[in-house]
Write a structure and sequence with these properties.
The complex is a heterodimer of chains A (about 425) and B (about 350). By secondary structure, chain A is mainly alpha-helical. Chain A contains 22 helices and no strands. Chain A folds into three domains: about 180 residues, Cyclin-like (Cyclin A, domain 1, Orthogonal Bundle); about 140 residues, no CATH class; about 50 residues. Chain A is about 70% helix and about 0% strand. In chain A, helix 5 crosses helix 7, helix 7 packs across helix 9 and helix 13 crosses helix 17. In chain A, about 40% of the residues are buried. The longest helix of chain B is centred in the middle third of the chain and has 60 residues. In chain B, strands 2-1-5 form a three-stranded antiparallel beta sheet. In chain B, strands 3-4 form a two-stranded antiparallel sheet. Chain B has four domains: about 60 residues, Zinc/RING finger domain, C3HC4 (zinc finger) (Herpes Virus-1, 2-Layer Sandwich); about 60 residues, no CATH class; about 70 residues; about 60 residues, no CATH class. Chain B is about 55% helix and about 5% strand. Chain B has 13 helices and five strands. Classes of the chains: A mainly alpha (about 425), B mainly alpha (about 350). At the A-B interface, helix 1, helix 3, helix 9, helix 10 and helix 13 of A face helix 10, helix 11, helix 12 and helix 13 of B. Chain B: This is RNA polymerase II transcription factor B subunit 3.
């Protein structure tokens, strides 16, 4: 096994966030089904408990046409809305990714931040439904967290000035990190592209202008196509890079692959004998294993497994598949996502549907955070109350002087909830 | 012991060679050679053996002795001297410690075996003695390394305890000196404060009590600080040394099989044996990219020690890392991260209780 591949296999990107297409589809389907169940439960619960919550949730939603909870009909039993299908969810995620890229352009963030934010966003909505959490806000959260993950620490004020929101971003931060399983390192193909260009230049027989043009185009593709597709889930950064390079200049990509996987086993090869003598090809091509690399000579089999023609064909096949995926979303499609007509015909109907079926409890991030905090506070409160009531019992036993020693805060809390305290007010 | 007292030394040993006695020659010194344990006076030994090896002058003894081998006896009884010599030799070869055995029973069996051997060497018949001698030699040849190691460990332990004793002595001396100094200081201080008090009284200021207590406090603080640091170090080092030196293995029954960790391990590898040598590409000298060029002249980068080669290495690594990783194949079959696990991941993320209790 090639040492580079072994190192890549250690990354969280491979361990936790690489899936086959079938797995990815299954996950999306499951996310969708679970979200339907939960949202239906919550809608029913909120409709039966708090019929008036309709107004408050309407006031908090950004879209004025939004109607957070289903209307209870005359009998008081709410009707469940039409939920989004997982394909519709995927379409919306793609649309919001294009929005994210626009927002990134607006902010003027570097390439890595832009890509990391996108990957965070995609990963988050892989295990969370777009009906559960608001994508519009999560875009900004992803940009904010993505900047931090890439070592740039923007001030929230900047975001507030540019996007006019602050509370939701801060409220969604932890949520996004949770949804990403706290895997903050995302491997990108940008530096890989520079490495490939260095390698191509070192061959010495390729026209400089051609290299520059190819790099420019490939970089352009990398900034859009892999982000708009599921490439980061299915392929490794180097494969994505080779695919982009191949889209930019097929000849260069193939040349690089051919030079890398150059190893041809000698014709007199006996499967049992390790190649003790240096192979003729490896010395000249300069792509062989670096000298002094620890393990000494490899056998022919090992070399064939790493840089042989068999693996070359497989790599070529994978790159070709990635290339096909990327070619669906070339940078020229940018206008597709921003065009008014497309938006009207494809996006808007789904978005309308979304406003009807979204999660009543989780749609508003700040509200959600506030509720969670209250929940936590209530928990603390009940613990404290238990402690305080114990204190008052002690006070009764010992003549009342103990209560004076209890902290002021605790007493105030007991006062506030006096009528609920099973042990009555303080002495 | 059984011999009667004999103040004049008539019953004293007599040199069997020159027949002189202690009575006649008060300065006589008896020596013997451990080859045959026949004693004679120093004069005779010098006379007979100064010119090289010679036969033992005792009647019936045909051992060839050398001058070098003669020494004076520590014990009056030469048979005791001989037994001690033999036991010393045996102990040098069979030098296992109790810690080397798994059970006390094993250790005792071992001691019994050693004692039998020693007894045969000392008191056995010629036949038995020869046999025991052969056994001892065989054992020694066979386990030379272990014996050497134990010997070394013993020496180290001796050294260590010697050092510890020296350190303790040193520390004690140090403490004594400190105490003397302190006492002197105190005396001087008392005189000074007395003078100050008198001065103050003369001037009419009445804050005499304060400086005296201050001095007292300071002294106590000093005393607390001094004695601690020197003492514990050598002792701890000695203990650690003992622990480290207990490495040995012998094929005696019941001997502990200790995990021998230390020797060939080499330095700690933080990356768990991961190979960092590239296997698909080679790092050429002079890999370059136009975007790097402007930084080569940028003083802020160069002065900070920015390594352009490292950047090139990283870029090349990223270009080729994972090229042979086929996500679709590997995730579907291997790695235990199949569809079901992906499903669990979704379920975990969607579980509302888990989210609420963050």
């Amino acid at each position: 096994m090639a040492s580079e591949d072994a190192r890549y296999r250690e990354t969280s990107q491979f361990e936790a966030w690489s899936f086959s297409p079938a797995q990815l589809a299954a996950m999306r389907e499951k996310t969708n089904v679970l979200a339907r169940q939960r949202i239906a439960e919550r809608m029913l619960a909120s409709a039966s408990n708090l019929p008036t919550s309709n107004n408050t949730s309407k006031a908090n939603t950004p879209d004025p046409s939004g109607n957070g909870t289903p209307n209870p009909n005359e009998n008081g039993a709410p009707t469940l809305p039409d939920f989004l299908k997982s394909e519709e969810e995927a379409l919306l995620v793609s649309f919001y990714v294009s929005e994210l890229l626009r927002a990134a352009d607006h902010l003027g963030v570097p390439d890595e931040v832009r890509a990391t934010a996108t990957v965070f966003f995609r990963r988050f909505f892989l295990t969370n439904s777009i009906m559960t959490y608001p994508p519009q806000e999560m875009i900004l959260v992803a940009l904010f967290v993505g900047s931090k993950a890439e070592g740039r620490f923007p001030r929230i004020i900047e975001f507030q000035q540019k996007f006019n929101t602050k509370q939701d971003i801060l409220a969604g931060e932890f949520l996004l990190c949770q949804g990403n399983r706290f895997n903050f390192e995302v491997r990108h193909p940008f530096r890989a592209l520079m490495g490939a260009m260095m390698e191509l230049r070192s061959y010495g027989d390729i026209d400089e202008q051609r290299i520059i043009a190819a790099e420019k185009r490939a970089h352009e593709i990398l900034l859009f196509s892999p982000l708009m597709t599921d490439a980061y889930f299915h392929y490794t950064p180097s494969q994505i890079m080779f695919a982009a390079l191949s889209l930019a200049d097929r000849g260069l990509a193939e040349r690089l692959i051919q030079e890398t996987f150059h190893f041809v086993p000698p014709t007199t090869n006996n499967d049992n004998t390790p190649a003790q003598t240096p192979l003729p090809g490896s010395e000249n091509s300069g792509l062989a294993r670096k000298d002094g690399g620890g393990k000494g000579q490899m056998t022919n089999d090992e070399r064939a497994a790493i840089i042989g023609t068999g693996i070359r064909d497989k790599v070529m096949g994978t790159i070709e598949a990635c290339r096909t995926m990327l070619s669906n979303e070339l940078p020229e499609r940018k206008s597709h996502w921003t065009s008014e007509s497309i938006f009207k015909s494809q996006i808007r109907p789904v978005r309308k549907k979304l406003t009807k079926c979204r999660d009543p409890d989780r749609w508003n991030l700040s509200e959600l955070q506030r509720q969670r905090r209250e929940q936590g506070l209530r928990r603390d409160d009940s613990e404290e109350r238990a402690a305080a009531s114990k204190g008052s019992k002690d006070a009764a036993l010992f003549g009342g002087d103990l209560a004076a020693g209890a902290p002021e805060k605790k007493r105030r809390k007991v006062d506030g909830n006096g009528q609920e305290d099973p042990f009555g007010g303080p002495l | 012991m059984a011999r009667p007292l004999d103040p004049l030394g008539f019953e004293d040993e007599m040199c069997p060679v020159c027949k002189s006695r202690k009575y006649l020659n008060p300065d006589i010194v008896f020596v013997f050679n451990p080859e045959c344990y026949h004693s004679m006076c120093l004069n005779c030994a010098n006379r007979l053996f100064n010119d090289g090896p010679n036969q033992c002058p005792h009647a019936g003894c045909n051992k060839t002795l050398r001058r070098k081998g003669f020494r004076s006896a520590f014990f009056g009884d030469l048979s005791v001297e001989r037994e001690v010599d033999i036991r010393r030799r045996v102990a040098a070869v069979f030098n296992q410690k109790e810690d080397d055995f798994e059970t006390l029973q094993d250790y005792n069996n071992y001691l019994q075996m050693v004692e039998d051997l020693a007894f045969e060497l000392v008191n056995g018949s010629d036949e038995k003695r020869r046999q025991a001698e052969a056994q001892l030699a065989a054992w020694e040849a066979e386990h030379r390394q272990d014996i050497e190691r134990n010997k070394k460990a013993g020496r180290e332990a001796d050294e260590m305890s010697r050092k510890r004793l020296a350190a303790e002595r040193d520390a004690a001396r140090q403490r004594r000196i400190e105490a003397i100094k302190e006492a002197e200081e105190e005396k001087r201080e008392r005189v000074r404060s007395r003078e100050m008090e008198l001065d103050n009284l003369a001037k009419g200021i009445t804050t005499a009590a304060e400086p005296a207590t201050k001095v007292q406090l300071k002294r106590r603080g000093q005393r607390g600080g001094i004695t601690e640091p020197a003492a514990p170090n050598p002792a701890a080092a000695a203990v650690a040394g003992m622990g480290a030196s207990e490495v040995e293995r012998l094929s005696i029954r019941g001997l502990k099989e200790k995990p021998k960790a230390p020797a060939p391990q080499g330095p700690y590898d933080p990356f768990g044996g991961m190979d960092f040598a590239p296997s698909r590409y080679k790092l050429h000298v002079g890999l370059a990219h136009p975007l790097m060029e402007k930084y080569r002249l940028d003083r802020q980068h160069v002065a900070g020690g920015y390594s352009f080669d490292d950047f090139a290495a990283r870029a090349l690594y990223e270009a080729f890392a994972g090229l042979g990783v086929f996500v679709e194949d590997e995730k579907e079959v291997g790695n235990g991260n199949g569809l079901s696990q992906a499903g669990e991941m979704v379920a975990a993320a969607d579980d509302p209780d888990r989210m609420d209790l963050d």
